[in-house]
Prior knowledge:
Bound molecules: guanosine-5'-triphosphate, magnesium ion
Mean pLDDT: 91
Strand content: 25-35%
Number of helices: 5
Low-confidence stretches: none
Amino acid sequence: MQIKKAEYLISSPSLGQCPTADRPEFAFIGRSNVGKSSLINLLCNREKLAKTSATPGKTQLINHFEIVSASAGNAKEKKWYLVDLPGYGFAKVSQNQRKSWTKMIEEYLRKRENLVNVFVLIDSRLPPQKIDIQFINQLGEWEVPFSLVFTKSDKNTQKDTAKNIKYFMFELLKTWESAPPYFVTSTVKKTGRKEILAHIEELIETMGK
Ligand code: GTP
Ligand code: MG
């Protein structure tokens, strides 16, 4: 899949203000600072499309990006939305901010009609974190389809990354019957891009059938 166009569209404080749900949508979420915005820039091949920052908690709204993609062997271009969601688990926010985050995200994830898949980003350097497992279990209760992305793989040896992924899946299989699809990425080494785009392409194509 080739990205023909990637443009920032709008930042919305609630589901009601999101753009019309007229095309497939893919959202990216994960702990604050896990690398969501960086990954979106890697996927779109645009360095400054989504704002990245060394300060956690930068993304506070539902951010829509308009994408036009093309696939090999298919002349028809596809339009879809990519969404950068604010991170969870940011310690320095007030109880009230946390509540409004939860409300906004829950409403968006449960009610956004065109949402095809949520990519949950996990820091590949860490052993399974309770907050990530809880969030994934919550998605299960809400019946929201998701895949996992293990980020920042350049910061660890391949062996340690594989060990953390295995441990993470082991924890998930305590509550899930099967393991979800997963990807390993590094925005420094620019790896994992092709695989995630192929997955998005496949999901868009199976939708049309
Ligand atoms: P919030 O929007 O604040 O929740 O953060 P985010 O999840 O969007 O993270 P962001 O993309 O802003 O990245 C956070 C920090 O991690 C930045 O300093 C990035 O440069 C760094 N980072 C992101 N991805 C990678 C990666 O694959 N490898 C390395 N080494 N650093 C990364
Ligand atoms: Mg961000």
